[in-house]
Amino acid sequence: MIIPVIHDHDGSADDLLSLSLLLLDKKINLKAVTITPADCYFENAYETTRKLLFKAGKENIPVGEGIYHGINAFPSAWRAKPKILNALPQLINEECDVLESIPEAHHLMAEQLAKSEEKVSVLLTGPCTNLVKALALNPGLSSKIEKIIWMAGAFDVRGNVATYNHDGSAEWNVFWDPVSSAQLLDYQLPITFVPLDVTNHVPVTFDFLRRLARQADYPWSNLAAQFWATTLDTIPAYEYIYFMWDVLATSLLSIPEAFKLEESKVRIISKGASAGRTFISDTGQPARIARSVELNYFYDYVLTTFRQ
Fold first, then answer.
1. Interval 21-73: pLDDT, tens
2. pLDDT per residue over 181-225, tens digit each?
3. How many whole angstroms separate alpha carbon 154 and alpha carbon 148?
4. What is the pLDDT of residues 112-135, one digit of tens each?
5. Which domains does the chain have, with CATH numbers?
6. Contacts of 122 (CB under 8 A, 6+ apart)
7. Of the candidates 69, 67, 143, which has an alpha carbon nearest to the alpha carbon of residue 106?
8. I want to staple 194 with a disulfide (CB 3.0 to 4.6 A). Which of 37, 168, 249, 304 is the partner?
9. Phi/psi at 240 (nearest 5 deg)?
């Protein structure tokens, strides 16, 4: 079965690795890509996105620009980091056009949903603002959404937000725009959260990177290895640690059998010291939460997909 997908990402290395998987996976029919200016500056993320589309021979897939900026900005140093991706050996000379007219992301998303003859899965590897704005244009588009997979949230673990006047309970994709995050739940759509609870158990290990490097004769494996190599200093730590945040969420589209999901009711706090906190509550909206994944199954899927 072919899965029609709209991918909304926010430009980090992990997002662009996710996009690469979608372009290579034969189960996926990528309908559109929209970019949220959250963990990136749009220009850099747009250029890399277009280069990946050209590299895959899928340059006709439309790309939309998110024009809404969140309430809580990502650190500037994080947002600037993706600029290095366009300088990598496999991308620096990759030809792509720079379109003069780029559609606004929420309009493109609404257009793609409206004209689709089949229900579409929406993959969010950044904040959900573009999707919420698209639904605000036409709430009836909810009927065109098969499911939403969102790399977001922290339920029974600490969040990854460490900033002034916040209690640290939130995950960044929710915290960036906690108001829209809470609004998304109000649409009562079939949402699956892939939260820190599960991604914390799926690191980008040196063993994985060595396996990927051993298949570097495959161009996409080579490029993926370069992407992950740029993350070595992304998170300050005494030990290198980077997780399969977005890539794990992306894999849920193709290998759902590798995951254990929990049916829950979820709420999101939209303001205050806990803004962006996701938690289970009897008064929340129905959602699924990814709780675990078969690690070897997942790693093998990623390595096999990039071996093309």
1. 999 999 999 999 999 999 999 999 999 999 999 999 999 999 999 999 999 99
2. 999 999 999 999 999 999 999 999 889 999 999 999 999 999 999
3. 17
4. 999 999 999 999 999 999 999 999
5. 3-202+243-291 (3.90.245.10)
6. 5, 6, 8, 109, 131, 145, 147, 148, 149
7. 67
8. 249
9. -60, 130
